[in-house]
Model the fold of this input.
Amino acid sequence: MNPIVLWFHKLGSPPYFYRFAGRWIPWLYAIALVAAAFGFYGALFTAPADYQQGDSFRIMYVHVPCAWMGLFAYLFMAANGFIALVWRIKLSETLAMASAPVGAAFTFITLVTGSLWGKPTWGTWWTWDARLTSELVLLFLYFGVIGLYHAIEDRRQAARAAAFLALIGVVNLPIVHYSVIWWNTLHQGQTVSLIGPSKIAPSMLWPLLTLAFATHMYFFASLFARARVALLELESGKEWVRALLPATETSHD
Amino acid sequence: MTPTRKRRLIAVSLILAAIGIAAALTVLALSRNMSYLFSPSEVLAGKAPDGASFRLGGVVLEHSIKRAPGSLTVDFIVTDRFHDMPVQYTGVLPDLFREGQSIIATGQMRNGHFAAREVLAKHDETYMPKEVADAIAKAKTAEAAQHASGSH
Done:
């Protein structure tokens, strides 16, 4: 078998993933911390003030990476949900459910920072334009997934039901992304583009990309930590979990 | 792939496709109603709701802002560079409100002008340092001057 495919199969086994995630978590947190420190230094000290907004544009350095993460975490959750529904892989169920609270937190931060920026710039805390509304729907979808997962007794059935809801909510992702293009909105259009030039000065762009990288690393660190705990709970009767706790096992004898 | 997995894959994919199509149709059907604002051209073409409140969006026309002395009333013209619409507003304007700035006003038509209840400033997607903006403005005026002198 192809070594990458083989590794992927191995990763799907809970004990292997448990060890793999445990090795990576400290590194991911460390990389996230260094990148965030570097990015915030650039965002708050070296980046010049904007020609129109002055210093209030710096809220963007928290707002935009969190907004990207809110969408990315949802896509990650839905992709794992799809695998969980079709192939019934236990790890995918766990990963999908572990990413929901992290994604919800990022989406919440996006809405709060956007509101704080909107008041001085637009003149209002909130307005029902397509971008803001669809982002709020995204937060409610996260709440729905988390709520449904905790409403069902059986963990694995709960994960599959919630994964199905997560999959249905995927239709909201293109709406969030393209809302500023499809409709006239108060929210401005896309600044940073993967294809074509970005409408932002390079001295202002690099801290943004560094912070986006930092939030991705944080997401995976936080996701791995949550998934490890969830796996221990799910597999508490299994041999490999008992092997992790030799002290309590021997104390009975 | 086992038959059960294949069946599940097809079922989940079909459900997703159905939801995707339903969402796309809804978005298409609502796209007119979901417009957050109307441009002056659209208002003059009668697309804005008559006698009801709506949002007017456009750029504040240069040299069109007139402040009534002794009050907070401001008169200005909103344009989409094709058609103009006079707007009257009484109240505090946001920081970014200035000539040449995109704004969104909420209100309704009254005797041929737009009586605004609320004025919001729209920010565009461009971010640059002040020095760069100044340099661009300088280059533009220099180019304009060159054009003017070249045509004579």
Notes: Chain A has a mean pLDDT of 90. Residues 23-46+57-186+199-237 of chain A form a domain with the Four Helix Bundle (Hemerythrin (Met), subunit A) fold (CATH 1.20.120).
